[in-house]
Amino acid sequence: MSKAWSGRFSQPTDKLVEAFTESISFDARLAEVDIRGSKAHAQMLSETGLISADESKSIAAALDSIGEMIRKGEMKFSSELEDIHLHIESELIRRLGDVGRKLHTGRSRNDQVSTDLKLYTRDAIDHIDQLLEAVQKAFVGRGDADLDIIVPGYTHLQRAQPVAAPHYWLAYVEKFQRDRERLADCRKRVNLSPLGAAALAGSSLPINRHRTAELLGFSAPAANSLDVSSDRDYLVEFTSTLALVAAHLSTWAEEWILWNTTEFGFLRLPDAFTTGSSIMPQKKNPDVLELIRGKSSRVIGAAQTLLVLIKGLPMAYNRDLQDDKRAMFDAYDTIVACLEVAPQIIAGAELRRDVIASRIDDGFLDATALMEYLIKRGVPMRTGHEVVGKLVAECEQRKCRLKDLTLAEIRSLVPATAAPLIDESVSSVLGSANAAAALVSYGSGSRERVKEQLAEWKKRLA
């Protein structure tokens, strides 16, 4: 088949140019959505009288057959036909002749490609949302079993305050929920149909863009044909949202890599999701988590690639946009791969209760609880902060814990006016377990508050 634009040219396209400009090597995966869009376009052409009903049926049937041919790997791809769109059209014309040549009436490859990309992105959003939900369920699913385990909470990687272990799990559930909400919001802007905007100015033919939007499940047609031709905002927004998903996955991976070390010793990863060393027999490496952490850079890079790609383009279509698909596909594939393995790691990991319990009272995790105890008895916050700081310094010198101090020793460092307000009840906030139990504010890390949040998430994810 000759080139779709061959009438204008007196020389054939150089083979180097064909190799340089082809995209079939990476856009063949758009075949299903391209056929979906073309069938809707053919139906609309029939309904507006631009082609006959019989021609529309012939086109639809041939497109279905071509789709099956592609799924079976029977279509031979060639750089001479550049992309998946021309491959499908070429095969359609080979089968139907002039009837096949009518399909492209009232559209351009510009709006056709954008339509395909929006359909693909919309499906991708829905798939990723399902995978994110599975990760959330994996975290929530282990919550009850871990509810009685108190672990250190950290800031600056320094021990800060104690929390129930599932408080960590729910922190990730919250992060991934925001990711799901961002994806849902992105989907609203993806779900506007470019089809029928043609090259940039629309068409003088009586096409019905609202009808094709309806047939393809779009909420409405995009309003400005010039904008449609250049718009890749939705891909930037989609990959930027995926970059946040990747960052959250990377944070989780980094934390569990640390918890899995001998130095922390909090976590034992499942054997099926770790690897060994070629030389050191004892090694059990968190390679899967390390790769999740590493692959986040590719997703973040994809969002940056698309921003740089569009930043210097004038209005309407430019061939630079051909490379938008590479970045988007790679970001999507990478996130899917990470999300597919994550739930099994989450569910299969084991908290090492004995190691955690043996060290949970190290690091003065109850210091803030003691300060707040003093506040509740009338000691100004800054004064209480200073007092507890002195108590901690005293304990460091003695190599003891706050709960080892006597009531008299605590009173001796408290302002004289407040000392009589402190009694034996102070022991109720000392020690990490008591300090965690003392947390009462909404969203805090005590067992009771975490139990409430677990129950709420079970309902939301049911």
UniProtKB/TrEMBL annotation:
Domain Argininosuccinate lyase C-terminal intervals: 364-434
Alphabetical list of InterPro entries matching this protein: Arg_succ_lyase_C, Argininosuccinate_lyase, Fumarase/histidase_N, Fumarate_lyase_CS, Fumarate_lyase_fam, Fumarate_lyase_N, L-Aspartase-like
Family (UniProt): Belongs to the lyase 1 family. Argininosuccinate lyase subfamily.
Pathway: Amino-acid biosynthesis; L-arginine biosynthesis; L-arginine from L-ornithine and carbamoyl phosphate: step 3/3
Keyword presence, Zinc-finger: no
Name under which the protein is recorded: Argininosuccinate lyase
GO biological-process terms attached to the record: L-arginine biosynthetic process via ornithine
Enzyme Commission number(s): 4.3.2.1
GO terms assigned for molecular function: argininosuccinate lyase activity
